[in-house]
Each structure stands twice: as structure tokens, then as C-alpha cells.
Amino acid sequence: MQIPVINNSGHPLPEYQTPHAAGLDLRAHLVDGPVTLQPLERQLIPTGLSLEIPVGYEAQVRPRSGLAVKHGIGIVNSPGTIDADYRGEIRVLLVNLSNEPFVVNDGERIAQLVVAKHETIAWQPAETLSATQRGAGGYGSTGKS
């Protein structure tokens, strides 16, 4: 799939790190220098990238597992969705869930981008829904294994 991209970052375009990876790494584009995230602080980090996602697809911005496990860095609205009609710069809403400050440097890989097909639905009003074994069981209803 070809996706038009504007790269104002000066960094290489996102790329897959392994042949079967689903996500491409997004890099921070920090013109004014490093950004320090204090514990529990969140900040929008620019990437310098703008995309033209095809209709019927979305781009999902997801956390990098290495930043999460090593430094407690996540994404507040994970996964963040980039819709096909958005043309602005991709920015990543990072959060520091650790007890230590974390410095984000220009060019650092901060998130993953996954492009996925999606469906557009039409609601079908109903009075009842089909029965299942689970029924209305919600959070924790299937127990521990």
C-alpha cells in the first residue's frame, strides 16, 4: 500500500524494524531541544509527519513496549486513531507513569504506527440480541485461568 507522507522532521521515514513487524516506529521531532516528562506528566510530542491515509483505513498510534517496560512511558489515548480525513501533523500524547523524570530527545523512537483496515457500520435498531453463553457478563466475568 502506498501512503503519501510529508516529512518535515529531517529524520528518516518510519520503518519496520523486522520483516514481520506490524508497526513502524515514529520518532520525536523536537526543534527546541529535549523534552523532560516528569512523573505522571503528559505532553504532546510532535513527529514532523503528515499522512494521507486511504479511505477505509486508519493509522493507530501505539506505545513502544521497550519504553513502557524500561521507563514506564505510555500513550494516554492508546491506541490513538488517525482518520483518513486528517491532514495535520502526527503528535503523540506521551505519559510518564514512572517515579523518575524521562527525557525525550529529538529523533528518539517514541511510538509505533499501525495502519489497519476498518469497516463503516450502519446501526440496525433491535429490541433483543441473540443469546450467548457469556450474555451480559462484563469485566472479570470469565474468571481467572
UniProtKB/TrEMBL annotation:
EC number(s) stated in the UniProt entry for this protein: 3.6.1.23
Keywords of the record: Hydrolase, Magnesium, Metal-binding, Nucleotide metabolism
GO biological process terms, semicolon-separated: dUMP biosynthetic process; dUTP catabolic process
Highest taxon, organism lineage: Bacteria
NCBIfam families: dut, PRK00601.1
UniProt pathway: Pyrimidine metabolism; dUMP biosynthesis; dUMP from dCTP (dUTP route): step 2/2
UniProt cofactor(s): Mg(2+)
Name this polypeptide is given: Deoxyuridine 5'-triphosphate nucleotidohydrolase
Functional summary from the UniProt entry: This enzyme is involved in nucleotide metabolism: it produces dUMP, the immediate precursor of thymidine nucleotides and it decreases the intracellular concentration of dUTP so that uracil cannot be incorporated into DNA.
GO molecular function: dUTP diphosphatase activity; magnesium ion binding
Similarity comment text for this entry: Belongs to the dUTPase family.
Catalysed reaction equations from the record: dUTP + H2O = dUMP + diphosphate + H(+)
Positions of substrate binding: R64, S65, G66, N77, T81, I82, D83
Domain dUTPase-like per the UniProt entry, residue ranges: 12-143
InterPro entries, alphabetized: dUTPase (IPR008181), dUTPase-like (IPR029054), dUTPase-like_sf (IPR036157), dUTPase_trimeric (IPR033704)
Pfam families (UniProt xref): dUTPase
